[in-house]
Amino acid sequence: MAHAALSPEGRIQAALLAIGCSQRQFADIAASMQIPVSAALVNLCLSGKREFTEWTSKKLLDLATELVAVRDYFHDVPIAWGASEGEIGRASCR
Question: What is the pTM of this model?
Fold first, then answer.
């Protein structure tokens, strides 16, 4: 069952759709920001099978809001949400 649009899970899902960031990419970004989530947990919660804890939903909502702000600030720059720090470093050295 899908979550309501105003639930934390619904708001996170809407933000990810708006910026073109997959659930896996979001989970990877969250993990790199020291938010302890896995791609499986994000998938379960955003598909309506589970709910995030209050702490996790707050952290992930904050992160989603920041990602939307980054996209809005750099609106003319295509953002590769799935690129890792290592991939970015290798690309800039070429």
Answer: 0.81
User: Do the Cβ atoms of 61 and 11 come closer than 8 Å?
Assistant: yes
Report the distance separating Cα 79 and Cα 49, nearest Å: 30
Neighbours of 22 (CB within 10 A): 14
Question: Could you report the average pLDDT of every consecutive run of 10 residues in the chain (94 residues)?
Answer: 74 95 94 94 94 95 96 90 59 44
Ramachandran region, residue 20 (left: φ > 0; alpha: ψ -120 to 50; beta: rest): left
Contact criterion met (CB below 8 Å) for 31 and 85? no
3-state secondary structure of 16: helix
Q: Which residue has the tokens 């896995």?
A: 38
The whole-angstrom separation of Cα 78 and Cα 94 is 19
Angle between helix axes 23-32 and 54-73 (nearest 10 degrees) is: 100
Per-residue pLDDT, 3: 60
27 within 8 A of 42, measured Cβ to Cβ: yes
